[in-house]
Amino acid sequence: MKLSKLRIKNFRAIGPGNEEKGIEINMMSSDIIFILGKNNAGKSSILNAYDAFINNLTMQENDFYGKNLKLQIEIEIELEADSDEERQLGFFDQNGITSIRKIWVWKTDPDNCSEISTFILFAGDWRKVDEKKDNDLKRLQKEFPETIWIRGMTTSQETVNNLKKLVQKVVLQSLKDKQEYFEAG
């Protein structure tokens, strides 16, 4: 599965933008995406937003743009299916594309925390889904592309260690998935 678009609104350094739509990044169907830019340009905000999206992280006060808790954080991804198996999850249109949007709002009672809602685009309409109950969505989320953070000025050994950890994680997940498949069959 490939990440083809990422849209972020009101998250950390990324405000509402022009026309209140936030920013939209087109990924050009690449397997590898690099984010380069000057200091304080929002690179980390982009990666942290995607990380919050795929891991359903709770937002803190400083995650809201300008610490304005009246705003809602919106993060939306568009995914392209790479295989027929992915297309059969039921979320993809005839072109193998799906969009998922998550919205965080601040709740002041009683815990002062953020609340997340998830929506999936079906036939042009956004529908709210319950991530805890929707098994197809859980399967889809396991396939979300992962981020690899290689910060500037790392040593070659740090880069090798980061890549080794990623490969180990992918291999272990693949083995776990195969074991679950054989146990279920």
UniProtKB/TrEMBL annotation:
Entry-linked Gene3D superfamilies: P-loop containing nucleotide triphosphate hydrolases
InterPro entries (alphabetical): AAA_GajA/Old/RecF-like (IPR041685), P-loop_NTPase (IPR027417)
Limits of the Endonuclease GajA/Old nuclease/RecF-like AAA domain: 1-146
One Pfam family in the UniProt entry: AAA_15
UniProt-recorded name of the protein: Endonuclease GajA/Old nuclease/RecF-like AAA domain-containing protein
